[in-house]
Specification:
heterodimer; A: alpha/beta; Rossmann fold; 4 domains; seven-stranded mixed β-sheet; six-stranded parallel β-sheet; 26 strands; about 40% helix; globular; B: alpha/beta; Pyruvate-ferredoxin Oxidoreductase, domain 3; two-stranded antiparallel sheet; 24 helices; 10 strands; about 50% helix; elongated; pyruvate (chain A)
């Protein structure tokens, strides 16, 4: 663990009835789990749900008091399989992961879980990373809900609704013996708000109780003939039970006037954007009061045909607001309307864009078009006509630099890719396979390295087809992070390469924990963790898998060594995969931990050395070759103010953490001698001070002597 | 293409009591503390009896990319408004940008609307990777962004908030909050902002200073900090020891006799070359400049270029030069200043060197150097055992003395192999230029300016020399043409623009095609 403390958040989890909880959406869910008597929680970290995992990891005390088991699962498949504890036992369980990537990984377990069904409430909290700012491919989790027949909640994005959805989800799961997905958009996860807290509930049955009283029921196991019965049961028992629950508990909400001739059906998650658009069109006030008839689907799957048909009754047209592609909800509604012979006009995709995020402007345009077509009289005149002249704003498309994300200041992965660039300069370009994680930023400038990314832990697997018929020929280089390695890279990538006698090079980027998601511990973390077994060696694991050629680099900043090792891996005659484990701690998380410690030590009078780098601007010639191998945020350009010079020179600002990459790159690439490393010693020892003063005097004497004999201008 | 902004008809309607939702978006560069700013604004709103909601699309650890934070707030009337979760084109009341180009990006994305949006932006620059990696000056022009701000923003508060924060010992989130409070775009008084800063508990005094300063500047009560422009930077101090005063004034006399127009550049140049070598070197430099002047007339553009680039050519970057700079007293002072070493702290200084065989042999006397360069066995030995990075501690006596010894070779420089090759190169360039200057001064000026292409050390230097040679090779193709100077400038720009040299290849091809 990066040893960050979530003590403040943990206190919020202890709140009881009558108190007001303040915080972000994902934390509200965490609290709601405890209020609803959850028995165990698991999951795999990843934006936007990492915070849930982080806070629970720091809440061991309160969790054990309540008898709740928490674990950080090895993968989303592990997390989903963990829900098996709710199959035979009436224990509520919840797991969480980022979707759609996590759901892909989980889908085998999800199918099995959904087939047998559950006794205790099983909740899967999905961080749906869709839309602008997303770091993954754009697909909908909805398809998984449909194919596996699990239910999906998509509550309105405010804290009370989200918290209510947790309670509804557990209940719905138990009543219909079906796992329930609770879908949260990335912004809902980070939304800051309030809700009235309740007391936390101990689970009626803990996982320990279950172990002491084991149960099995052949009917719930996925094996013929039970599997055929499961399918029938899904359709004849579980689905009707879920639909009845949706109606009885009024999960879906109706707003506006039921008499309206037009209506809108929206997913709960997009409710706020729809209301804002209606407000901007003069059709709703800022509290959401409106005459427009709206059916808000807080449960997006399954739909209840009777409810939909009743809503459409007597209407001229309805609009389905459904973000993402394909338009599953619209298709189902169209089918219902056709089957029951309704003639209401159905609008959805077409009026609104087929794909992409439904932003405010998209919604205003779409709803505007819908009302102009089907209910023009509803739109206030002021909204459709204007005398205002359009104002021409200059187009800045070509005036702004792109600002893609990149490695942080001092990142230990930067020197790995600088070394790769240097190897390529020498040996030519290679096919490079990338993986998920911070190291994927190597695809961006200035490195521009990497051809594909096929999934977490699958970097080396995605290069497995590349068997060079010529043993002396080029090899592929693939990257995988320590997180991806333990997630499934050990078997899918490394084991696969060993088994198939793959000759390619695999670089395992180890930054001491799952750094990109906030520093969660994994098997090879270097820190001691009270509740986890850490410090398991990646090298030993690879050797156990049968890797013969393996090198451990314990200081990635040594660019020369990194480059030479890579070169050796690309040229050695040893058969089988060549594995390099490149390890140095994530600098962002390290600084968060170390900086306050060092500041305190310096304040307490202890000897502290703070390194940082600098550039001698008189020696720098302004070629910027160093930056083409770096991209460090603290290394930038500045004007010299010297009329004799044309180009800005390199400069390192105060944010430098002294990682050493600049100097190492300048050395390995034989760039220039402009870089220097300065170490600032606070509270130096007396011996040190005396020595420095003595040396200073001699140096000073030499300098004065020379200055007395030359004309100096510096 | 210009973006036609449709007249805003989709305006938000107020609540029954006249209460309005205020929308605020903050565009930050990852790692700038946008989260802190967001929390402060929400807290101020809530302390003033408003309901507020914030969201962000910040990855947990993904840095340096552009990040958006979004806040909505509304006077509390007992009901919860339906707040939106993301900023919408044409619907942002206040846009806070923590860097100039991010302010520009906000405009490009439609978040700054005439007649509506107060734009609060810091005007300092954080260069993007693409701006840093160009071999020349890749930084984007800011003019368009300022112009667009003037058109798009209803109210504009733009000054260097980074400098304000730094001067107060704080970070930019404090000065951004100050500028926001001072802009008057939010209906909350100054004290309520300051209370929130106090309650945050960390670095309160510095934050309050930065806040107060930015507040006053935004209100127009104080001037914004002036960025030190290049011209205003203090020049290095000239130090002429007693024993050299006479010979130095002889140089100054020669300088004074030259045309007024070239005094500034030649003055700097002569100081630089004398500092680099000795007073005689200064005379050698002035000889060159005078030759250019003899062929030139007012406004002496060619002579100014000669003054600039002859100084560059004479002050080539060799080991002696580097060692000299690294061992100077003024350099130690500058480093201390740059990395901020306090009086009770010590500084340890490590230099990164990697001299190859090439640098080693060229620092030897001519004959010996040539002999060594032709001995493959010695080169192989050097490459195997000595060609590696060296870390030299210049705060230690042994390290300092090592560099000091190298720098002490300065008086012998004229006898070394490197000097020989540099002078041959410079003389060829300069005499060719003077020859062209007889007929085409504009082309000669561009030829002088081509020396800009030579920079760097080792491979970078070799690449620079090769680019220079290729660009200069076009002189014979171009001379006599009316547009020769223009083409020469284009060739140089192409060479500067790209690392691989593809653009230069293309440009040379074009020149060849019309020259034939």
């Amino acid at each position: 663990m990066a040893e960050r403390s979530f003590a403040k958040e943990v206190q919020k989890l202890k709140m009881g009835a009558g108190e007001t909880f303040t915080g972000e959406g994902i934390l509200a869910i965490t609290k709601a789990l405890l209020e609803n008597g959850v028995g165990y929680v698991g999951g795999y970290q990843g934006s936007p749900i990492s915070h849930l995992m982080d806070v629970l990891a720091d809440s061991q005390e309160i969790l054990s008091e309540l008898g709740v088991h928490f674990e950080a699962s090895a993968s989303e498949a592990t997390a989903t399989a963990m829900l098996a504890a709710s199959v035979h036992y009436p224990i509520r369980g919840a797991v969480t992961y980022k979707s759609v990537v996590g759901t892909n990984v989980a889908s085998d377990a999800l199918s099995n879980l959904a087939s047998g069904g559950v006794t205790g409430g099983a909740l899967i909290i999905i961080g749906e990373d869709y839309g602008e700012g997303s770091s993954i491919m754009q697909e909908r989790t909805y398809a998984f809900a449909m194919k596996s027949q699990v239910w999906m909640l998509d509550p309105r994005p405010n804290l009370p609704s989200i918290v209510q959805a947790v309670s509804d989800g557990f209940e719905m799961s138990e009543i219909s013996n079906t796992p329930v997905m609770l879908q949260m958009g990335i912004r809902s996860c980070h939304v800051h708000g309030h809700f009235e807290a309740q007391d936390n509930q101990r689970p009626d049955m803990t996982v320990s109780d279950a172990l002491e009283n084991p149960k099995r029921d052949l009917e719930r196991i996925v094996l013929p003939p039970a599997t055929y019965i499961h399918e029938a049961e899904k359709l004849s028992k579980r689905l009707p039970a879920a639909q009845k629950f949706i109606i009885d508990k009024e999960i879906n909400e109706r707003f506006g006037s039921p008499k309206g001739k037009v209506g809108i059906i929206v997913q709960g998650g997009t409710y706020n954007t729809v209301i804002r658009a209606l407000n901007r069109l003069g059709l709703a006030n800022l509290y959401g009061d409106t005459d427009v008839d709206m059916l808000v689907l807080n449960c997006v799957y399954p739909l209840v045909p009777d409810q939909i048909l009743e809503f459409c009754e007597g209407k001229d047209a309805i609009l389905v607001v459904e973000e993402g592609h394909p338009n599953y909800i619209e298709q189902q509604i169209g089918h219902m309307l056709f089957q029951s012979g309704k003639s209401v006009k159905l609008e959805g995709k077409g009026t609104l864009p087929m794909g992409g995020e439904y932003t405010g402007q998209v919604m205003v345009d779409g709803l505007g078009e819908f009302f102009s077509t089907y209910a023009p009289k509803m739109l206030p005149v002021a909204k459709v006509t204007t005398n205002e002249e359009p104002i021409q704003i200059p187009d800045l498309t070509n005036s702004l630099p792109a600002r893609p994300p990149g490695f942080c200041t001092g990142c230990p992965e930067r020197p790995i890719f600088a070394a790769t660039k240097l190897v390529e300069e020498e040996l030519g370009e290679h096919h490079i396979a990338s993986d998920i994680g911070c190291h994927l930023f190597s695809i961006m400038p200035p490195f521009d390295i990497g051809a594909t990314t096929m999934g977490y832990g699958l970097g080396p697997a995605s290069a497995s087809a590349f068997h060079n018929a010529d043993k002396e020929g080029r090899r592929s280089i693939s990257f995988v992070g320590d997180g991806g390695f333990w997630h499934n890279g050990l078997t899918s990538s490394v084991g696969n390469a060993v088994f198939n006698k793959n000759d390619n090079v695999i670089v395992i980027v180890d930054n001491y924990y799952s750094a990109a998601t906030g520093g969660q511990d994994i098997l090879s973390s270097r820190a001691t963790n009270k509740t986890k077994q850490t410090q398991n060696s990646i090298v030993t694991a690879c050797k156990g898998m049968g890797v013969k050629w393996i090198r451990q680099i314990d200081h990635t900043y040594d660019v020369t060594k990194m480059r030479d090792t890579l070169k050796e891996a690309l040229t050695t005659q040893v058969e089988g995969p060549k594995v390099i484990v490149a390890s140095s701690e994530c600098m962002l998380n390290k600084q968060r931990r170390v900086k306050p410690q060092l500041a305190k030590a310096a304040k307490d009078g202890k000897r502290v050395v703070r390194p940082r780098f600098g550039v001698d601007e008189d020696i720098c010639t302004g070629d910027h070759a160093c930056m083409r191998l770096s991209g460090c945020p603290s290394l930038s350009v500045k004007d010299t103010g010297d009329p004799l010079r044309d180009d800005p020179v390199a400069a390192i600002d105060q944010t430098c953490v002294g990682c050493g990459n600049c100097g190492e790159v300048a050395d390995a690439a034989v760039l220039c001698p402009s870089f220097y490393q300065a170490e600032i010693v606070s509270n130096p020892s007396d011996f040190e001070k005396r020595r420095a003063s003595r040396t200073g005097k001699i140096i000073g004497w030499l300098q004065n002597r020379r200055d007395a004999k030359r004309v100096a201008f510096a | 293409m210009n973006i036609a902004t449709k007249p805003i008809i989709a305006r938000r309607s107020p609540g029954p009591d006249g209460e309005k939702i205020i929308t605020l978006a903050a565009l930050a560069v990852g790692g700038q503390g946008g989260g802190v700013l967001t929390n402060w604004i929400v807290a101020v709103a809530e302390a003033n009896g408003y309901r507020a909601q914030s969201t962000s699309v910040a990855g947990v650890a993904q840095r340096t990319g552009a990040t958006i934070y979004y806040i909505e707030m509304c006077r509390d009337t007992g009901r919860m408004p339906v707040f939106s979760l993301s900023p919408s084109i044409g619907d942002v009341d206040i846009l806070v940008a923590s860097e100039l180009m991010e302010g520009g990006r906000a405009i490009m994305r439609g978040f700054v609307t005439p007649g509506r949006t107060t734009l609060i932006t810091s005007t300092h620059r954080i260069a993007a990777v693409s701006e840093k990696t160009a071999p020349g000056d890749g930084r984007m022009d800011e003019t368009d962004v300022y112009e667009a701000m003037g058109v798009a923003a209803d109210q504009l508060v733009a000054f260097d908030m980074e400098t304000v924060a730094k001067q107060a010992g704080s970070v930019i989130s404090s000065s951004l909050l100050g500028a926001l409070a001072g802009s008057g775009a939010l209906p909350f008084d100054r004290a309520s902002f300051e209370d929130i800063i106090r309650a945050s508990g960390r670095g309160v005094d510095a934050s309050l200073r930065a806040f107060g300063e930015a507040y006053d500047i935004a209100r127009g009560d104080k001037p914004a900090p002036e960025a030190p422009t290049a011209e205003e930077r203090p020049l290095p101090v000239l130090n002429v020891p007693e024993g050299l005063k006479a010979s130095w004034s002889a140089l100054e006399k020669r300088l004074t006799a030259m045309p007024q127009d070239i005094h500034e550049m030649t003055g700097l140049g002569v100081k630089k070359v004398v500092d680099y070598q000795d007073v005689d070197y200064g005379h050698q430099y002035l000889d060159m400049v005078e030759k250019a002047v003899a062929l030139d007339a007012a406004p002496y553009e060619m002579s100014i270029a000669a003054a600039k680039y002859c100084a560059r050519a004479l002050c080539y970057d060799d080991l002696i030069r580097v060692a000299d700079i690294k061992t100077r007293a003024s350099r130690f002072e500058r480093v201390k200043d740059e990395v901020v070493v306090k009086d009770d702290q010590l500084l340890r200084l490590t230099e990164y060197f990697h001299p190859r065989y090439e640098e080693f042999t060229t620092t030897l006397p001519r004959a010996l150097g040539r002999f060594m360069q032709n001995r493959k066995s010695i080169e192989a030995f050097y490459t195997k055992y000595l060609d590696k990075g060296r870390r030299i501690r210049t705060d230690s006596l042994s390290g300092y003395l090592a560099l000091w010894t190298v720098s002490s070779l300065r008086p012998l420089r004229r006898k070394l192999l490197r000097h020989d090759s540099e002078m041959t190169h410079a003389n060829t360039w300069f005499s060719k230029t003077l020859e062209i200057a007889q007929t085409d001064k504009a082309l000669a000026t561009e030829m002088l300016t081509n020396y800009r292409l030579i920079k760097g050390y080792s491979d970078t230097h070799t690449r620079g020399m090769s680019k220079f040679a290729r660009v200069m090779g076009a002189v014979d193709l171009l001379k006599g043409r009316a547009d020769a100077a223009d083409w020469m400038r284009r060739l140089r720009t192409a060479a500067l623009d790209d690392v691989e040299g593809d653009k230069l290849d293309g440009a040379l091809q074009t020149v060849k095609s019309f020259a034939e």
